[in-house]
Structures are given as structure tokens and as C-alpha cells.
Amino acid sequence: MKDEYPTGKADLMTAFMLKAEVLTKPGGTWGMINLPSWMSLKSFENMRHDLLLTQRIASMVHLGRGVFGSDFGSVAFVVANAKGDGGRAVYRRLFEQHVDVRSVATIEALFLDRDYNRFEIAQSDFAAIPGSPIVYWLSEKMRAAFKVSDRLDSLVITEGQHKTADNDRYLRYGWEVSRSLAGHQARWIPYAKGGPFRRWFGNIDHLVDWSEAARSHYRLNAACRITDPQFWYLPGITWTDITSGGSSFRWMPAGGTFDMSGPVAYLAYSNDYSSVLGILNSAFATDVFRILNSTFHLQLRDVRALPMPPEPVGSHEISHGVDRMVSVSRDDWNSFETAWSFTKNPLIRTFQSATSERPPRVDSN
Fold first, then answer.
1. Domain 6-147 in CATH: superfamily?
2. Per-residue confidence (pLDDT) for residue 76, from 0 to 100
């Protein structure tokens, strides 16, 4: 597989796709029914690139789940052994939610409705999207967004992720460490490590040992990794790299660092993190990330590929709204007793405030 079908080696079905190209005469056609994973996964990116360059997709029916029982979904397609000529192919999407398992009769009825989820797309539009996913259902505006030259990549710098190789020894929850030993440039510093779906602020539960001895261990142990000193203690934008609830980005205050489960992006030439954070948490960005990566693993390369408006940084309206949401989210996060900045339960604070404002009782005697 590796030697004969290098771009399709990740799955036997894609090796058969490459074999079909070889067996088909120039100008002829070949067709298959396959799993749809080859249409979007990173492991098939090179295969998609070659297919779009040397072959022409004539038609495709994305069947969804149910044709073969409770399956993983299937896709039927016909491909011409000829370079794309700029023409448009017909694509059908016979489902709304990919998780739905329907009967064969239901799927057939959707297919016979000629107007149901019918798309006519030029395959050159796929090549303009990073990774060349076969996302035929995108709107015209969404496809046009990928044709702009500006990407978040032009604004962002980063430098890998920190790795201790022994979290039991070098990581603690915030409430396990004395305040006198934690904080900016202390032995223990905040550590972004992903966490559940949460936007704007929070999910920094951990502290990492940042003493001289610990940093020496990170440098010398082959299983470890330590970020470059120029990135130490910087503020940034962090997110959870594995999530089934959609993308969620958060402000990471200065003074900490991060690991591979909670990547951090820094801005290269601007301090307007609020505008970028607002764009990353927008509905548009959420849709884009689903296109760029159909798995639950949102990687840095996907974030950097986000198309950006011509002047994304410096919008006062966006910055003001994001600052407000970060503030509300910070107050909410710090209301939990496990939060590093927790001081008092908000119910007690509210009760004390109400008590102090209550007029004094007057003795009836």
C-alpha cells in the first residue's frame, strides 16, 4: 500500500480509487460506493488534491446513514478520467444530520425528489479551500470567503506546546498549591490544558511546576518539551483541541503557559486580542472549522487557516462587546471555589449586600 498507493494508503477503499484511475481509459469514467471519510479527513488530503487535479467528478450522491443498515454513512460517485474543464457537477445530499439513520425507502424518496439538497458546484472551488475537502454544500458566500488572501496565519505566532512527560509529578490543581508559591514567575504558574466547552474565559484549573529544577528536566528529558523563553508568561488565546461541542476560544491572561491539550495563539504585531477572539468565537468561524476538520480535533493549522476580513483588527464595536463577554465569563468562572481567583461565594456576597442595605429595625416599644 505504501509503495504502490502512497496517497491512498490510509484505507483500502482509497487504494481502490487510485487503482480505478489507472484502469480507466482516458476520457472514460469510473464509479464507486465508499465511506465518505476520504472527502474531508487530513489523511486523504494529498489524494484529494491529486484527484481534483487529474480527474473530474461527474456526479455524487451523499447518502448518509441507513443504506446498509446502521452504517457509518456512504457516498456514491462517478468520476471521469479527464482533467476538470471548469464545468459544474451535480451533488445530492440525502440527509440533514449525518447521525440520523433512515430506512432505505426514506432515502429513496429523498433521491426521487429532484430538488431536495441539490447542488451544482465547480470542483475548482474545492481546491481553494485548505486541505481540498469535498464540501459541495457550502453557500456561495462561504466558498468566496476561502478565496480571499488574508488568513489568521498572517496575524498569529506560536511555538509548539509544553510537555512535562510526568503530569502526576509536575502538575497540580490550583487549590492544591499555596498562593505564596504560585503566580507570575513563581514556582507554580497557570497552565492551559483545554477542558470542556467554554468560551471567553476560564478552564485554567491547573498549575505547572516552573522551578529551575523542573525547567531543567523539561529541557533534558527526551520525552519532554518546553516552549521557547520568548513565549513565557505572554497573554494569548487558548482553546480545547478535542471537543464534540464545537469550537470554543478563551482569553488566557499573562503569566502562564500551555500544553498540547490547550494550544495558545499569540498575535504577531498587534495587541488587539479582543477583535481576534470575537472572530474566532463567531458562527462563521465555527462553520469554517467544521469544514477544515470534520473530526473532534481542532488543530493549530486549522485555526491559522481561518479566512479573515480585510481589516479584522481594531474594530471598536467588536472589541467592546468581547471585553464585556470576557468580563462576564471571568466573574462566572471565579464564582467557583476551585477557581484560582475565587474569594467569596456570590450568593453570600449578594446576601451581605442586601443585608447591609436593609434599613435598621425600629423597636415598637
1. Vaccinia Virus protein VP39 (3.40.50.150)
2. 96
